């Protein structure tokens, strides 16, 4: 009953007739293509040290972001587009790039792999309609974001030699997107390992924290917009497609015509960072169960205008497209959001994920956007939790990830208020009891970093358990002890006695 068979596991949707299907062989060939290009040409690293002009010979502009660590050539550049295509502009692209084949065709643009003939490296070139602004919105947003390991890098913008109404954006080339990875790595019937779900929360959470910190809302988070670069133990995840993104968007204006149905949050009239968190929850839900958290409701054939009027709804002021808004509302009425737990056996999953993983997925899929976890919280928690869960798994003590009361019912209704910090405290207590019981300090050693993500009350309780003085954070204790030692050395033994007396 999935409205989006394109991304669902039971239906091999993106095969027949899909533009992505046509692109698959190229993706498989990319590895050998890269190897050939590298063998034919001098090494890219050597070329990067040379001072080379920008990718587009017809432009001359300074780099966008001085903070990034790339060579001059690789820096994203700010290039005003000429109002009319010149002959030089038309030839610049063809002189410089050789088309190596289609990667994928999205809703807004077509992406090809191209070889940069001067540098002997492969890049991804997205061709899309020329925007009203000199630079495409996507590029303006990427300028605002600067450099981040989990955000796609844009090198240049050029005119399309074949069509003056089109532009070409030159991006770093990634191996594949999350849909392709999922299909190749975990074919039908195989479950995605839990550690990969933690990896997704950690890396996409880090990307979103950066994006939201710069006042940007991505607005179209879904698996095809997450790219991968091979790394161990898991590929690095790279957020792309900022075509629907907005910088400092007004929260009260619905952006129903942006993004993709099925990955939209339940709040229709609000646009903000919480929408992206819902998208992240959907990605985890889809990886774990093979479908997004939506369910169909049969309303019969409906005309959006009539249905909207019958429902006595109103189009909010400043809505860019009332028609789209009405259709969007109808779509929502036909597909209501129903996140399913992933810590239970279901017909979609033959393995249970931990209760803690389920907790974070559901925190991203909170129906009320104001209580949804933020990217900043998630990023902070994941910096500690990823290593903790990995350590626990290596020890074979995954059981402690179940030892907490989340205060929610089976259907995630709130029964009693339990904070994130309280969950960490409960898990810490479970680790402490186990370590105490078997007289083995390894588990409590792994759990100690959880102190850093607890609030002060839980931190104090946890410290009491350990029987240690209450100073925030282990590094802080060490630093204070060193400082105190130095001060006491300076003032001599008499002062040390005084200080000891005061402490007593
Ligand atoms: N830098 C890249 N490296 C490799 N593949 C890429 C790259 N950029 C995009 N792709 C592929 O092309 C597809 C479409 O790209 P993108 O999402 O940017 O286009 P779009 O038209 O805005 O998409 P949408 O349909 O989401 O609106 C991606 O899902 C991905 O598979
Ligand atoms: Mg896309």
UniProtKB/TrEMBL annotation:
Keywords attached to this entry: Kinase, Transferase
PROSITE patterns recorded: PROTEIN_KINASE_DOM (PS50011), PROTEIN_KINASE_ST (PS00108)
Bias-annotated ranges (Basic and acidic residues): 62-76
InterPro entries assigned: Kinase-like_dom_sf, Prot_kinase_dom, Ser/Thr_kinase_AS
Region (Disordered): 47-85
Keyword Transport assigned: no
Pfam families: Pkinase
Superkingdom to which the source organism belongs: Eukaryota
One MF annotation (Gene Ontology) recorded for this entry: ATP binding
Signal peptide coordinates: none
Domain Protein kinase positions: 97-389
Protein's name according to its UniProt entry: Kinase-like protein
């Amino acid at each position: 009953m999935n409205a989006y068979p394109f991304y669902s596991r039971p239906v091999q949707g993106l095969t027949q007739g899909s533009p992505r299907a046509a692109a698959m062989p190229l993706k498989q060939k990319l590895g050998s293509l890269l190897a050939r290009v590298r063998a034919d040409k001098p090494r890219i690293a050597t070329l990067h040290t040379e001072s080379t002009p920008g990718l587009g010979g017809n432009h001359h502009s300074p780099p966008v972001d001085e903070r990034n660590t790339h060579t001059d050539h690789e820096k994203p550049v700010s290039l005003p587009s000429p109002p009319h295509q010149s002959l030089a502009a038309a030839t610049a692209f063809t002189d410089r790039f050789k088309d190596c084949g289609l990667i994928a065709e999205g809703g807004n643009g077509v992406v090809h792999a191209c070889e940069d003939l001067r540098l002997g490296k492969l890049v991804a070139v997205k061709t899309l309609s020329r925007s009203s602004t000199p630079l495409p919105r996507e590029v303006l947003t990427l300028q605002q974001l600067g450099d981040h390991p989990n955000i796609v890098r844009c090198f240049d913008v050029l005119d399309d030699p074949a069509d003056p109404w089109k532009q070409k954006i030159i991006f770093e080339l990634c191996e594949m997107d999350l849909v392709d990875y999922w299909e190749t790595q975990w074919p039908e019937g195989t479950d995605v390992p839990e550690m990969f779900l933690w990896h997704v929360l950690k890396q996409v959470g880090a990307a979103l924290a950066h994006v939201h910190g710069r006042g940007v809302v991505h607005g179209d988070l879904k698996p095809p917009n997450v790219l991968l670069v091979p790394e161990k133990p898991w590929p690095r995840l790279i957020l792309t497609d900022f075509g629907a993104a907005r910088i400092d968007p007004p929260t009260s204006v619905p952006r129903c015509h942006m993004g993709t149905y099925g990955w939209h949050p339940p709040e229709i009239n609000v646009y903000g960072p919480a929408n992206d968190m819902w998208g992240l929850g959907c990605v985890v839900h889809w990886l774990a169960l093979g479908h997004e958290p939506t369910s169909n409701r049969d309303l019969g054939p409906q005309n959006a205008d009539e249905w909207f009027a019958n429902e006595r709804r109103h189009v909010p002021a400043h809505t860019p497209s009332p028609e789209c808004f009405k259709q969007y509302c109808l779509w929502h009425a036909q597909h209501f959001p129903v996140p399913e737990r992933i810590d239970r056996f279901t017909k979609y999953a033959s393995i249970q994920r931990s209760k803690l993983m389920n907790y974070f997925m559901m925190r991203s899929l909170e129906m009320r956007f104001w209580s949804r976890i933020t990217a900043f919280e998630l990023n902070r928690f994941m910096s500690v939790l990823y290593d903790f869960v990995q350590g626990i798994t290596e020890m074979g003590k995954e059981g402690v990830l179940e030892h907490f009361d989340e205060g929610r019912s089976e259907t995630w209704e709130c029964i009693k208020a339990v904070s994130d910090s309280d969950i960490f405290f409960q898990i810490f207590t479970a680790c402490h009891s186990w370590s105490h019981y078997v007289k083995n300090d390894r588990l409590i050693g792994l759990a100690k970093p959880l102190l850093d993500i607890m609030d002060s009350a839980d931190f104090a309780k946890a410290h009491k358990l350990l029987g240690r003085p209450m100073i925030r954070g282990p590094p802080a204790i060490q630093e204070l002890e060193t400082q105190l030692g130095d001060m006491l050395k300076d003032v001599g033994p008499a002062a040390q006695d005084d200080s000891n007396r005061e402490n007593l």
